[in-house]
Amino acid sequence: MHIDLVALIVDEYDPAIEFFTRVLGFDLVEDSASLTNDGRPKRWVVVRPPNARTGLLLARADGERQSRAVGDQTAGRVGFFLNVDDFDASYQRMVAAGVTFVREPRTESYGKVALFLDIAGNRWDLLGSGAA
C-alpha cells in the first residue's frame, strides 16, 4: 500500500506545471482532458519528483470555496516536504529561479532545511544534507 497522489489546488494549470517541472525539477507524468463530476471540462495533471511513487494532482480551483484554499491548504503550516539529494545545489537553483524562501537554510539534527513557498503560496520544507 502507498499514497499515489495528493491533490494540490492551484489557480491555473500551466503556471503550476511550469513551476513544478522547470523550477522544482518534477516530471510531468500526465496532462489529459477530463470532466468534472457535473460534466464540465477540466484537466487531469500529475507531476512527480523523478523516481518517486507519490505525485501531486494539480487541481484547478473550481468555485469560491476552492479558490479560497489556494495557497492555504494546510492553514499556514508547512504541509509539504521536498527531500533532495544535494541541498545546496537545489537551494541555489531555486533561488536563481525566483522561489520565495520564507526562512533561510539552517542545520538541524536531521540535516538542512529551508522553508519556501510554491506558486500558490503553500509552505514547503526543502530538506537534505550538504554544507552551506
Account of the protein in words:
There is one protein chain. The protein has 132 residues and is α/β, with parallel strands linked by helices. The chain is built from three helices and eight strands; from the N terminus they run βαβββαβαβββ. It has helices spanning 13-23, 64-69, 87-96, and strands spanning 5-10, 27-35, 41-48, 55-60, 78-83, 101-108, 111-117, 123-128. Strands 1-4-3-2 form a four-stranded mixed β-sheet. A four-stranded mixed β-sheet has the order 5-8-7-6, covered by helices on one side. β7 and β8 (123-128) form a beta hairpin. The longest helix is centred in the first third of the chain and has 11 residues, at 13-23. The chain is globular and about 50 Å long. The N and C termini lie far apart (37 Å). The relative contact order is 0.20. The model has no long low-confidence stretch (mean pLDDT 94). InterPro entries: Glyas_Bleomycin-R_OHBP_Dase, Glyas_Fos-R_dOase_dom, VOC_core. This is VOC domain-containing protein. Residues 2-129 form the VOC domain. It holds the Pfam family Glyoxalase.
Largest sheet, described in full? 4 strands, mixed
Order of helices and strands: EHEEEHEHEEE
By oligomeric state, this entry counts as: single chain
| Radius of gyration based on Cα positions | 15 Å
Residue stretches low in confidence (pLDDT < 50, at least 5 long) are: none
Q: How far is the first residue's CA from the last residue's CA? A: 37 Å
The backbone outline, from C-alpha atoms, is globular
| Largest sheet: spatial strand order | 1-4-3-2
Kindly estimate the percentage of residues that lie in beta strands according to DSSP: 35-45%
Q: Structural class from helices and strands?
A: alpha/beta
Overall pLDDT confidence: 94
Count of helix runs: 3
Secondary structure: number of strands: 8
Protein name: VOC domain-containing protein
Domain VOC: 2-129
Pfam families: Glyoxalase
InterPro entries: Glyas_Bleomycin-R_OHBP_Dase, Glyas_Fos-R_dOase_dom, VOC_core
